[in-house]
Amino acid sequence: NADEACCDFGNTGVDDVGYLGGLIDEVKAAYPVGDVFVVGHSNGGYMAYRMACERADAISAIISLAGNAATTPANCQPSQPVSVLHLHGTADATVPFAGTAGASSSVQQWMSHDTCGTARTPDVPSLDLETSIVGAETTREHADGCPAGIGVELWAIEGGSHIPNFAATFGATLFQWLTDHAR
User: Fold this and answer.
1) What are phi and psi of 85, to 5 degrees?
2) Could you tell me the fold of the domain covering 16-180?
């Protein structure tokens, strides 16, 4: 149940936000945990966005790979800013990059939630994260005017599909982004 548009299979009324939020709360109560990050792919990316909407008190940043923000932006009322990195292949046929609920709209939605400005600035150089595409295929943009310590970014994998073939450096690159956006 990552979004109203998807996916309580079997209509069981499952509460994934309650479960994941409870898990985070229990771990934080039992251990000296610092920042909590949520990372997801596809429906997991949608879930990362939902966690940012409903449990901004518990998480510092999210990364969504090919999963978009809330279908109805008014349903997302985060209690505080959350850093967001959205990665998406421009040739994704499963969760399209473009469109009303696409990658750019997701980033714009979070720029608004996080009280950033309305403009995005390209970052250079592009990154070479996808091994089946020649060259540095991942273009990056960051939101201008975000509160101190908050980042909202779109990394577009030019020609990338729903399930990219990531380079060995991919995990370390994402981990660095997360640690750079700790509260």
Assistant:
1) -120, 120
2) Rossmann fold (3.40.50)
